[in-house]
Amino acid sequence: MRIMGLDVGSKTVGVAVSDLMGWTAQGIETIPINEEASEFGIERLKELISNYEVEKVVIGLPKNMNNSIGFRAEASLAYGELVKNETGLPVEYIDERLTTVQAEKMLINEGNVSRKKRKKVIDKLAAVILLQNYLDAH
Fold first, then answer.
1. 28-76, pLDDT tens digit by residue?
2. What is the model's pTM?
3. Is the CATH number of domain 2-137 3.30.420.140?
């Protein structure tokens, strides 16, 4: 069963998918969105779900450090409901605190990637990290 991981931001959604065995996560792309204009990239997401034959979606839940649900986590929950309603797939959430920070550190320390290039791939890498964390836990 292939699982898709999503790192939802206000301007982009990082997308990763698992291999068929559910062992590893690979980054696919970053979908541009615009929350303010209610443009959520759902059509592109549905294309990717179909192309990769995804059966479940995992969305990062950016809780506050005190474990409370803030504005960004509420936005991720709303995005998850939209995905569930539009695709009919089950949606699960995984605590993603600090995955973007972890992704940035990886790109700086291990990849020596410039700031401009980091902006283009950081959400996709964060999606890989959160999906891999989910796969490892299950």
1. 999 999 888 788 899 999 999 999 999 999 999 887 667 777 778 888 9
2. 0.83
3. yes
